[in-house]
Design a protein that fits this description.
The protein is of the alpha+beta class and 391 residues long. It folds into 2 domains: 221 residues, PPM-type phosphatase domain (Phosphatase 2c, domain 1, 4-Layer Sandwich), CATH 3.60.40; 165 residues, no CATH class. It contains 11 helices and 18 strands. The strands form 4 sheets. It has a 6-stranded antiparallel β-sheet with strand order 2-3-4-5-9-8. The chain has a 5-stranded antiparallel β-sheet with strand order 1-11-10-6-7. A 5-stranded parallel β-sheet has the order 16-13-12-17-18, with helices on both faces. Helix 1 packs antiparallel against helix 2, helix 8 packs parallel to helix 10 and helix 8 runs parallel beside helix 11.
Length: 391
């Protein structure tokens, strides 16, 4: 069961207005046997001190829980290790921990953060929490067997109180947050983008000037989805047929990038290339095409350069998400497939030199290979499994 599943994760933060550092910190530790730990810690106050408290708490909890230390010992160690805040006289950082074993069994521990909730089958579902007192701290805990697409939402209280005294009298509140999560949820949306929706809404409630550090972290149990992308003809034209055959033999979706590449695939399949108009596209991106049996056919390097820009942002703040997730130009469609749908990506990279590009250094084979290698690396940072094969 575990080999067909993946623990997808993503998180987004906003700093307290005027602060360079965020007082919230998220740590993700991948463990053997398809297991992982994700910790969101919220340091008291904001700025440097809060950042130190949350970083230490998140890092320590992640390592200790991952080593299966008793939760009471984990909490005692954190409490006795954290530096004491001069402003408040205590060492204080709240935290939420999600521990996933074998992409199937989930344990949650929560101390003073908003109670984590789950979206299951498109509806908010609250696991049955037990409250225990450990070293004077009340800890919520639960464990359950995950279903496919279960999505666990963790957040700092900057989300809970978004808009307080500004757009809302008492802040956003957990009941309204869960309703919002239900309204935007789709099985196809990645964990990172689910977190992005929550933070974007929080920012709107704060009118762009958050009065606290704001973080949402999401962990989602997903089925693996394989995407295959063919870019460029092979170095030896005699190998084009073999390359296309291997490309098409793999299960999952198939994307073809580049006019020459599309011609090779169409000839192999004995099918026509048909132009497709994009009614909600980007004027700077060349139009897409259609080959029967291929999921998406786009132009090459201009399109992939834009995909790389979107992927860099996705792996970081995901601030450009709402500029591409609804469009149907080539770069937006590839980004939706690679960043939202895909868990496993296989690039078939042809290394032939295109004679038409010899007088344009920006389209040289060296730069094309560099672009694809960077795209593969950025996608790995976004929690994708990526293989790049050269032909």
């Amino acid at each position: 069961m575990t080999t067909d599943l993946l623990s997808d994760y993503g998180y987004v933060s906003m700093n307290h207005v005027g602060e360079v550092l965020c007082g919230d910190f998220v740590t993700v530790s991948k463990l053997p046997n398809d297991s992982m730990v994700m910790v969101l810690a919220d340091g008291m106050g904001s700025g440097v001190k809060a950042n130190i408290l949350s970083t230490l708490t998140s890092t320590m909890m992640s390592k200790m829980v991952g080593n299966e230390m008793d939760i009471a010992d984990c909490i005692k160690t954190v409490i006795t290790t954290l530096p004491v805040s001069k402003d408040f006289g205590v060492s204080y950082a709240t935290f939420s921990v999600v521990y996933v074993k074998e992409n199937r069994w989930i344990q949650i521990y929560n101390y003073d953060n908003p109670t984590p909730f789950v979206i299951r089958d498109g509806k908010a579902w609250q696991p049955e929490y037990v409250v225990s007192e450990i070293h004077g701290k009340k800890i919520q805990s639960c464990n359950f067997e995950a279903k496919i697409n279960d999505s666990v939402f963790m957040m700092s209280d900057g989300v809970l109180y978004a808009g307080i005294g500004e757009t809302l009298n008492f802040g956003w509140g957990l009941p309204q947050i869960t309703k919002f999560a239900e309204s935007i949820y789709e099985d196809s949306i990645s964990a990172k983008s689910l977190a992005t929706y929550i933070i974007d809404r929080s920012n709107n409630l704060y009118k762009g000037r958050p009065t606290d550090d704001v973080t949402c972290a999401v962990l989602k149990i997903r089925e693996r989805k394989i995407i295959n992308v063919m870019v460029g003809p092979s170095t030896n034209p005699e190998d084009d047929g073999k390359m296309v055959s291997l490309f098409l033999s793999r299960k999952g979706k198939h994307i073809v990038c580049g006019g020459t590449t599309a011609s090779i695939v169409a000839r192999y399949l004995d099918r026509e290339i048909k132009a497709v108009s994009s009614d909600i596209g980007d004027e700077g991106i060349p139009p897409i095409s259609r080959i029967e049996g291929i999921d998406l056919v786009t132009e090459g390097m201009i399109t992939l350069n834009r995909v790389l820009e979107y992927a860099r942002d996705f792996a970081d703040k995901n601030s450009r998400y709402f500029s591409w997730n609804y469009k149907n130009d080539g770069a937006s469609l590839i980004s939706s497939i690679l960043l939202e749908e895909a868990t496993d990506i296989h690039f078939f990279m042809g290394c032939a030199v295109n004679a038409a590009h010899q007088n344009n250094s920006s389209l040289s084979i060296t730069l094309k290979m560099k672009l694809m290698e960077e795209l593969a690396e950025v996608l790995r940072k976004a929690n994708k499994t990526v293989n790049l094969t050269y032909y």
